[in-house]
């Protein structure tokens, strides 16, 4: 029988087996390829064929596009004579532009600088375009703020100038006091700018009028100063060594009469402990709670303690037992109703110490 033909091998594999010496193994002998002459047929004893343990598998060459760099170089190195290189095996390179890609252009420093400068200009233009509204709004706000500041400074300057000086003083609320006397006392403020009127000097001048309980100043530009006063309410006369002194509910002496008899139309106060006692405070609170028509009929007020205030009505000498100063407003309403129903001329006394159960005798 014939010997089976060997497997086909690539040129590289055949060259590596036939012509190249493998390190560590002896070079193959050409004579080993001669057909062996033996009396035994090869087909009968296939297992007796010699097998080379170091024989490598057939090598299939890879294309340069898929093979690694070192594999491609090894392939080129082992290519058989007469075999041409693949057009994809190596990129074209020219001597002038070594290392450049084919699509890269010649770009110099000047071109790069011009491109960077153009990019900066475009960026600045975009910033200006997007910030023009903000700048306009900021300018408007600054203009408004500056206008307000100038207006405020102008107003303050004009207010503190002689253009707003005091030329007229008006007194409001004076009933017992002559208004002209109060205005003459404050004549020192004439010519002073309204914002610079000295309140301490005004107070020092008004203290000389005991009838003034409270006051308030009001500026009416451009030239008028208004003084609003609240007069004290006199409640009666207290007998003293100097005569009869007119006092209010707080015990402030309003005036003193040197005559030996009290002035008509003003009740006489007979209070134990004087103006600094609790009995006087209770009597003053009772007199301030009375209506004007009833207060005008009172001729005498007596109180030894804060709980036994008694009033005397003129003409009929009827007594009004008031008691303490508690619920004085309600007691006054009950007394007015009782006097309207039964006049003082027909009554001896009105007991309103308990407003829920009034007693009339």
Description:
There is one protein chain. Mean pLDDT is 76; it is low at 10-57 and 62-104. The chain has helices at residues 11-18, 69-77, 109-159, 179-185, 199-206, 278-289, 292-295, 328-341, and strands spanning 168-172, 212-220, 224-231, 234-240, 243-248, 253-257, 268-271, 298-303, 309-313, 319-323, 349-351, 359-360. It contains 8 helices and 12 strands. Helices cover 31% and strands 18% of the residues. The radius of gyration is 65 Å and the shape is elongated. Among the domains are: 163-231, membrane protein fhac (Ubiquitin-like (UB roll)), CATH 3.10.20; 234-360, 3-Layer(aba) Sandwich (Rossmann fold), CATH 3.40.50. The termini are far apart. By secondary structure, it is an alpha/beta fold. Strand 5 and strand 6 (253-257) form a beta hairpin. Strands 7-8-9-10-11-12 form a 6-stranded mixed beta sheet.
Brief account:
It is found in: Membrane. The chain is built from eight helices and twelve strands.
Low-confidence stretches: 10-57, 62-104
Radius of gyration: 65 Å
Query: What is the arithmetic mean of pLDDT?
Result: 76
- The proportion of strand residues reads 15-25%
Following the backbone from N to C, one meets helices and strands in this order, namely: HHHEHHEEEEEEHHEEEHEE
Strand order of the largest sheet: 7-8-9-10-11-12
CATH class of one domain: Alpha Beta
In angstroms, what separates the terminal alpha carbons? 172 Å
Overall CATH architecture of one domain:
3-Layer(aba) Sandwich
Overall number of strands:
12
CATH superfamily of one domain: Cell division protein FtsQ/DivIB
Helix percentage: 25-40%
Major sheet: size, sense and barrel closure? 6 strands, mixed
Query: Per CATH, what is the topology of one domain?
Result: Rossmann fold
Structure class: alpha/beta
- Quick one: overall form? elongated
- Counting DSSP H or I runs of 4 or more residues, the number of helices is 8
Pfam families: POTRA_1
Protein name: FtsQ-type POTRA domain-containing protein
Keywords: Cell cycle, Cell division, Cell membrane, Membrane, Transmembrane, Transmembrane helix
Main location: membrane
